[in-house]
Amino acid sequence: MPFRGIREDIRMARQNDPAARSNAEVFLAYSGLHAVWGYRVAHRLWKWRLFLLARIYSQIVRTFTGIEIHPGATIGRRLFIDHGMGVVIGETAIVGNDVLIYHGVTLGGTSSVRERRHPTIGDRVVVGAGASVLGPVTIGHDSIIGANAVVVTDAPPHSVLTGIPARVRPRTASSAADTFTDPAIYI
Fold first, then answer.
1. Per-residue DSSP letter, 155
2. What is the mean pLDDT of the chain?
3. Share of the chain above pLDDT 70, in %
4. Where are the alpha helices (DSSP H) in 48-143?
5. In whole angstroms, what separates CA 98 from the centre of its chain?
6. Cys bridge to 81: 15, 32, 125, 161, which one at CB 3.0-4.6 A?
7. Is 157 in contact with 130 (CB distance < 8 Å)?
8. Does residue 44 register a pLDDT over 50?
9. Can you tell me the mean pLDDT for 160-181?
10. What SS3 state is found at 86?
11. pTM of the model as a whole
12. Based on C-alpha coordinates, what's the Rg of the chain?
């Protein structure tokens, strides 16, 4: 299973980054993938209730990648973080399968109470550069969050979210045909 997951992650990166020239380049030089792989190790430690060790390991990964994924978060398969510097994913966040996240994204909490306080991101969602999704909101499958949007409300599947605070509107048929669409076009 671990090798299959690595191959899937590399395939996802090659599919979504036209600058990726080879599997070797992606494997060796893509910090977004290194952060996800580091998260998977830290998450396993977290599930084994080795909380301090998991946090220390995740901070080491953060130092090298510039991407902070809390080991308590739940991340699906084939997450691709493109140019990931500054990405933060909080402890109770849930990220679905085949999600694309650009740099500077925050999946953050709005409460200091020990409860569900981070967002749930559905499958095949694109989160544009600099976007913040705050609180225990749910973003439906196949949605696009535009660059620098601040999302504080739920969104149904097949939505486009833009602005501060983000407005929710349905995806058009033409944009829904593309699995991953450049979120910058929705600014």
1. B
2. 92
3. 90
4. 51-65
5. 9
6. 32
7. no
8. yes
9. 78
10. coil
11. 0.89
12. 16
